[in-house]
Every structure is written in structure tokens, then in C-alpha cells.
# Entry
Amino acid sequence: LLRHTFPILERFCFRSDFTFGSTKLTHPKDNIEALSEFVRRHGYLKTVEVGGELFRNCEFLLAISGCDELEELILRDFCYNCFDFSHLQNLSKLKILKIRFDGDLYGLCDRSQCEDIDFSRALQSLKTVEISEVGDRYAVPNHIYDVLSQLQNLCELRLRSCYVNDIPWTRLTQLRKVHLTKGLVEKSCGSHL
# Structure
């Protein structure tokens, strides 16, 4: 499959736990190279959805950054401190970013690990951000809202299965649409909606 070229392919979804027949692709270097080359050959992709540890690999991120037509990027089982958004700064058509966390916010709550990531400069073209599956014990950390507030083209925020307490709405004045799906609100804290 990965050796073939599909001239009209617009969407590519792949997880590192995907199985071809009885052979499970773990993510050794050969598979990363094959996946990266596949994405490079299909630089006209409009949607890329990856999960597992693929998006933590620099070579794979560079391959995605070569998709000039990319409009939607979906990251599943996401680990924030392993992802360098600066690799995506050339994606001028990227409008939608969906992030589904791995549930334990591995590294996400520690701002010191994120300060070298200039998310806002890299992704100024974003219009929609969806954050989901943060975990039933965690709220989205405030520094994520700080970053979102700097995205001047951002007009839609979708929060799915996240605590929505104490969202700093006054910093997100550029939003036109807000979706709270399966949002978790603690009665003791209240939300400033």
C-alpha cells in the first residue's frame, strides 16, 4: 500500500498500531521512512490523520509540512511535549487542527516543557481548533488558552470531553463559535460562560 501512488488521494489516516494482515506495524525506522515517503509523494493531501507515535517523529512531521494543500490535521493519542509545531509553519492553508489527547496529559500541564514551541506563529492560518479526550480529571491548562488567544484567525473552538471550568473567555474574543460537547462542569467551580 505505501509503495503505491494515488493521484487523487485527499485524505490519509494512519495509526502506528495499524495491522497489515498478520503483520503489525510498530514504528521502526523503516516504517517511518515508508510512511514519510508516502506522504511526500502525496503532497496534495487535504487531510492527514495520525495517531500513536508517528507525529513524534521529526521526519514524518517534515513530510507533513510539505503538504501544501493541507487544510485539516488530526492528531490522535497526542503527547504535547513531544510535538514541535514549528515544523508546520509552512502550512498556509491549514484551517482545522483536531487534537485528541492520550488521556493523561503527558507533559501538557508543565508549561516549562512547552515554552520553546511557538504554536501561535506556526499556525496563524487556523480557523478551527478541536480539543478532545483530555481526561476526566483534567481541564485544559490555561497556557493553551493563552496560545489560542494569539491565533487571530481562530473563529471556532470545539471542546469535547474536557472540563470547561474557568475557561478565560475574555481572552478568546476572536471566537465566533464555541462547541462544548460532553463537557464536564464541576458544580463547585462554575464556568464563566
Q: What stands out?
A: The two ends are 48 Å apart (CA to CA). Residues 29-41 form the longest helix (13 residues). Residues 19-23, 104-117, 187-193 have pLDDT under 50 and may be disordered. The CA atoms of residues 166 and 192 lie 6 Å apart.
